[in-house]
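User: My collaborator and I are trying to settle a disagreement about how two of our proteins should look. Neither of us wants to argue from intuition anymore, so we agreed to look at predicted structures for both before our next call. Could you fold the first one, then the second, and keep them clearly separated?

Assistant: That sounds like a sensible way to settle it. I'll keep them separate. The first protein:
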Amino acid sequence: MDEITLTIDGLKIHADRSMTVLEAALRNGIYIPHLCHHPDLEPVGVCRLCMVEIEEKGLMISCRTPVEQGLVVKTESPNIDKLRRIAVELLIADHNGDCLVCGKNNQCELQRIAAYLGIQQERLERLRRPTKAHRLDNSNPFFDRDPNKCVLCGICVRTCENLQGVSAIDFLSRGYDTIVSTFGDRPIGESQCESCGECVVRCPVGALIPKDFQPPAREVKTVCPYCGVGCGIYLGVRGSKIVNVRGDSDSLANRGSICVKGRFGYGFINHPERLVSPLVKRDGEFVEVSWEEALDLVAVKFSQYKGDRFAAISSAKCTNEENYLIQKFTRTVMGTNNIDHCARL
C-alpha cells in the first residue's frame, strides 16, 4: 500500500493514500464523533459531526476529506466544539429520550457522542419542543422500526440501495417532517423489504431493533447451517440459548453480510420439537436410540438395496465436498447413478 504521513492532534500517524481523514483517525485509535459514517458505505457527510480543523484549509468534514502527505489536523477546538454541540443538541431535542428501555442502550452512537461532548440537561430543556409522534412499525416479523428514534443519517437507505440493491426505503417528505419510510409510507412488512437485516445492524441508534432483543453473554464463531455457501457468522449466546447472529467480516465467503435465514432463522435450535437423537420405529412407535445403533441399522438396510433399487437425494445445505462424497458413495458403494439434488427439484 502507498502510505503517507500526517499529523492528527500532534500525533504522527501513517495512513493509506486512499483513506479519508476520519478513516485514518479511527484506524489509529483517535475518536472523531460521527453518525452517518459506516466503513461499508461511501461517505456522504450528512451529520456534520466529524468536523475537524485542517491547517491552511480551515474547518472541513473529515469523512469526505482525503488524507495528504504532511496534513496537520485538529479534532478539537472551540469552533469545532460549538458546531458539534449545536448539531447534537438539535438531534437530541427531538429524539426519544427513553434510553434505559431502548434496545440500543450503551451501544447507541448518539448516546456515545452526547457523553463525549458532555451535553447538559439544562441546555436540552431550553431546546426541547413538542414533537410529532410517529407510529411504531412492527409489521416486519424480525425487527421493529421506530421513526421517533431516527436521526436521518441515511445509513439504512444507502445500505438498502447500494449494498442490497433493493431500495425498499428512502427519505419521505421534507424539512422538519422528513422521515425514512417505504413507498407510500406503508408498513415495512408490506414493502419489498427482504428482511436481510443489513440496515438493522448498521443503524447507529435505536430506530431499527431486532424483536425481543437480548444482548449476548458470549459469542461463538461458526459457519451458517442454511446453505452450501459457508457464510461465517458469530452466534450470540446467553446461557444455552442463541439470542442473535452477526456476520463475520473476516470471512471470505460473505465478508460480514448474511441473508434473512442466516441472521434471524435460528429459532429451530432451541425449539422443543427439535430432534436431538436418532429415532427408530418399533411396533409402530418412534423410539430414541444411540447413533451407533441407528447407523448399524442404516448399514443393514442399505445392503439390501444395492444397484438401481437405491437412489440418493442430496441437500443444498451441504458443502461442495459433502455433496461430492454422497455422489461418490452412491456410484461407488451402492453401484447406481440414481442421485439427484434438492435444489434442482
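The second protein, kept apart from the first:
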Amino acid sequence: MIITISGPSSTGKTSLIENLKKHQEYLESLVQMPVVFGNESVREVVSSQYELKSLQDIFKDQEESLKLQFKVAEYNKSLYCSIIKDNHCLYIFDRGPLDNLIYTLLCFNNCSSDLMLKYANDFSNYCALNQWLSENIDLILLTKPDDAVLSPEDDGFRPDLFSLLRCVETELFKLVFRGLKVVDLPSDHNDRLVCFFSEVTKLARNNK
C-alpha cells in the first residue's frame, strides 16, 4: 500500500512524517504490516545524481531545473512500479507524483520559448507519467494550501524560485487536486495525527 503526503512548501508535510515515525509501532499494529517511510524524491535524485550541487544551484539554470523534474518522475516510476503490487508493507512518502507534476509545470512555464519548444514532448510525456503514477496510490493526504504562509522559511534546500512563485504554487495545488479523491488534513498538528490514523484505519479495513 502507498500513502503520499502532498501540498505546497512549508505546510507541515515533513513535520507530519517525523511525528509519524515516533508512532511507527502503533501504526504497524493498526495496519498489521511493516511501515516504510520514504524520503522526498527530489532530495534523493539530487543527492545521488548531482555531485557537489545544491538544489539552489540547479535552479539557477532553466534547462537543468526542468530536467531535474523529469529525473524525479523517472525515479518515481522506478520506485512506485517496484512497490505497487506490494501488499505486505505500507509505504509513506513525503510528496508524490502530483507534486512532481506541479513543479514540472512551474519549471516549464519559467523556461524560455526555445526551451519550451525543445522539451514540449518530454513535458507532455512526464506530465502523463505523473498522472498515471498517482492513480496507483492508495491514499493521498493533502496539507491544505490555505494553511500556507506566503514567505516559507529558508530550510537551506528550497530554491528561491518557489519562494518567488509562492502564490502560483499554492494556486496550482488547488487546481491539480480539485475533484480528486484526496483527504484534506487539518492545520493543527495533533488534529493531523488523529485524521491520519483515522484514514489509515479505514484503508487497512478495505484492504483486508
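Some points you might bring to the call about the second protein. The mean pLDDT is 86. The chain is about 60% helix and 10% strand.
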